Amino acid sequence: EKASSLQVFDQMESEVRSYIRSFQTVFKKASNAKLWDKNGTEYIDFFAGAGSLNYGHNNEGIRNKLVQYLMDDGITHSLDMATEAKETFLVRFNEIILEPRKLQYKIMFPGPTGTNSVESAMKTARKVTGRKNIISFTNAFHGMSLGSLAATGNSFKRGGAGVSLPDTTFVPYDGYLGGSVDTSMILDKLLDDPGSGVDLPAAVILETLQGEGGLNEASVDWLQRIEAICRKHGILLIVDDVQMGCGRTGTFFSFEEAGIEPDIVCLSKSIGGYGLPMALTLIKPEYDVWNPGEHNGTFRGNNLGFVAATEALSYWKDDELERKIAADAEIIRTALQGLKAKYSSHIVELRGKGLIQGLVFKKADDASRLSKEAFKHGVIMETSGAHDEVAKVMPPLTIEKSLLQEGLARIEEVLSDMYDSTAS
Length: 424
Ligand code: PMP
Prior knowledge:
- There is one protein chain.
- The protein has helices at 2-12, 48-51, 60-71, 84-98, 114-129, 146-150, 155-159, 184-192, 220-233, 303-313, 320-342, 364-376, 401-419, and strands at residues 27-31, 34-37, 42-45, 106-108, 134-137, 168-171, 203-206, 209-210, 216-217, 236-240, 264-267, 280-283, 347-353, 356-361, 379-380, 383-384, 390-393.
- By secondary structure, it is an alpha/beta fold.
- It has 2 domains: 2-59 and 319-419, Aspartate Aminotransferase, domain 1 (Alpha-Beta Complex), CATH 3.90.1150; 74-316, Aspartate Aminotransferase, domain 2 (3-Layer(aba) Sandwich), CATH 3.40.640.
- The strands form 4 sheets. It has a 7-stranded mixed sheet. A 4-stranded mixed sheet has the order 1-2-3-15.
- Helix 3 (60-71) packs antiparallel against helix 10 (303-313).
- The chain is globular, with a radius of gyration of 22 Å.
- The mean pLDDT is 94.
- It binds 4'-deoxy-4'-aminopyridoxal-5'-phosphate.
- It holds the Pfam family Aminotran_3.
- This is Diaminobutyrate--2-oxoglutarate transaminase.
- Its cofactor is pyridoxal 5'-phosphate.
- It is an enzyme of class 2 (transferase).
């Protein structure tokens, strides 16, 4: 048994560096918040495809729609041509998501990934304003293409570009300089002062809660001040909701609580409903500057994505899912607070909200150790932050309560194994 799985690893060594290093198994099946590997070992999914599986693995309602669509000879690939699946999605997205929130956006299909959405958002802002510079924030994560990487505040990832990336100015995110410093003032000053050397930007791009960057959360006041600064200077505000959107923080859009109205919103990951590649860029109608053919891409109109996404929207027709997220968030918060109190000399902070919360470890390596040991206890969880110092709890929004509690209990067991013999 062991020999055969090692053989698989040898074969998979041909894959460029990836998760096989941290989660050493070959997965085979999944259902809602559970995964099984080839050997039949069961795992609890506290990672949810980095936020791509908000409605769980193989969501039954969505799967039924997909199977039916395939059986009915529904079109799978149509470039960006109009299809019934696309039309239905657009109508339902407006009805269920935008109209009740009194939001008006035109919808662009930028390509299949979050990176595509960010790239198209930045291009739109440059085209609208005729300016080049983009303001981004420390620890931001926006994607892997040159433009989105330029706006990613992580020198390790940027190193992958092999060259320095132009036309971005980084400003400290909320909390970066400690709780008492209002970093929006820095942005305001830089933009007001010709002596700052900062070119008037096309856009400010931000995540309301930085998923990859360590679960840093912007306050409502800070977000409102950033919006006001954008309005004052005629700068477009882009909210990258690729990871925090579709309910991760508790509401469909992560910026709802702050009451801000971004000019452009990037969505991907869970918008595809079933883990299917799909992305949207929501653009205020007055900023739709695109002519046919100017921004295209072969996989922009994933019809299976539209079918899955349309069915997933039914979760947002009432507030049942939102209430479930709030209740589960409380379960996670209480559990993590308990762990922080118990292991206070190792765990320095609890971060995040909704179904993305995490523990910040004093020794960054301990977060990776927790992730590695949790895997041995049948829990898949990942780390984030510039030093991988935050261990994240990020299950599908549809996780069964008992499974959530079971996963949290296993994390406690792991921490007990890590620390109790050495005393905290
Ligand atoms: N923006 C944010 C906030 C993300 O978390 C990610 C992915 N982790 C991206 C953009 C890029 O998305 P993708 O990996 O689909 O290109």
